[in-house]
Amino acid sequence: MSFSELILKAKEYLPPEKLAVVEEAYNFALKAHEGQVRKSGEPYVEHPLQVALTLVELQLDASTLAAALLHDVPENCGISVSEVEALVGAEVAKLVDGATKMGRLSWQAPDKGAVARQQQAENLRKMLVAMAEDLRVVFIKLADRLHNMRTLDALSLERRRGIAQETLEIYAPLAHRLGIWELKWQLEDLSFRYLEPRKYRQIVSLIAARRAQRESFITQVIQILRTEFERLGLKAEVSGRPKHIYSIYRKMEKYSSQGKQFDDIHDLLALRVLVSTVPDCYSVVGVIHSLWRPIPEAFDDFIANPKPNGYQALHTAVMYLGTVPLEVQIRTREMHHIAEYGLAAHWRYKEGEPKDMHFEERIAWLRQLIEWHREFTGAEDFLESVKTDIFIDQVFVYTPKGEIKDLPKGATPLDFAYRVHTELGHRCIGAKVNGKLVPLNYELKNGDIVEIM
Ligand code: MN
To answer: What pTM value is reported for the model?
Structure first.
């Protein structure tokens, strides 16, 4: 990849005058890293260039691209942040500084004693604060980690495993929480490849062996849908959706824990339909459900009830030919952009264009999280609660006023009461879910409306 390609891509969405700082940053990085090589043998500057390329794909602003090009300059070249600032200005320097500081945080396994745990808790706290200050720093670190994962072969076996483990435990869930699907699945698949090489290869060959059959099914389905949409005058783009290796692995694990066999190609059939408007989304679901029988409970309306990270779409699954389960995601092109790029999509708006009005709403969970964790003084408590909140599966429930609350999977009405207010938790004597009385150890489900008595 050359620098000119980066500029070419940036020009697609940034005005030319914004690109000067990116060029200055590159020339600076080129000089600073001169003579340095990576373990893989390539010139060092190739690494920051690749990091910037990932971020240009997410259509981030010029300051983020410049900071990505300079992100290893303080650590690797002994150049101070104030020197960086003198050259490219305060905004870029601040991002470089944030990325450098975040890079120094280390995540050790929690079983290495109390001191290590305290250190890890402190690091998590620092990361949360950095995120709340400027999310662009986190985007740079995610892209940095992605390129390091892609070039992991140059490191020793032990280092590879350590980095892959950390990526799967910290970085991939972070990408998930920020809604950046495009980075999340790549981080997961790469981690999985190094942590479980045998299982990884097994799934790759499983997918390959059944490719022909799967593709012929997908082609048939797409043909049927296109004809039907055309007949009804619905403008929709239909495409096959690749399933990612780690998500297939997770599904296989789930099956085997339920005593079922996963040798069913059909679980890999997935489609995506893109349309222009929200009403078209619902029309498409109607068409699909009238062609094939929907699988009960597989329909999710994330348009009316978006996930807190901003994700919106309709999900359904139907039985094709009566026996073949087929998963379909339906969304507008705008929703699609946000689904792929998550909170990073906020920065793609050109000057003068309306800003993303829901951005503040979407990062509100983050601010709330920090507020919430300020109450904890003990490092151990803090560590446990942050890990639960960021890195464990969530359920999303509502207050009677329709306010959304996210809780860790397995949470009960009592946890909900404490999340709303400590006092409410203390005084809670019972709870209603969706209007019905439930025991206080009831396990909350997505979309439940919870009323505390
Ligand atoms: Mn780096």
So the answer is: 0.75
